[in-house]
Amino acid sequence: MNIKVIGDSCFDMNKELKKLSQICLAPLKISVGEKMFKDDENLDQRTLLDLMKKSDKPPKTASPSPNDFLERYKGEEDVFVVTLSSELSGSYSSAVLAKKMYLEDSKDKFIHVFDSLSASVGETLVGLKILELVHLDCKRNQIIERVDEYIKDMKTFFLLESLDNLIKAGRINKIVAKLATAFSIKPIMGSTDKGTIRLVEKARGSKKALRRLVDLIGEQGERLEEKIIGIAHCNCFEKAQKLKDEIKKRYKFKDIIIVETAGISTVYANDGGIIIAF
Question: Within 13 Å and on the Cβ side, how many CA atoms surround 62?
Answer without folding.
Answer: 11
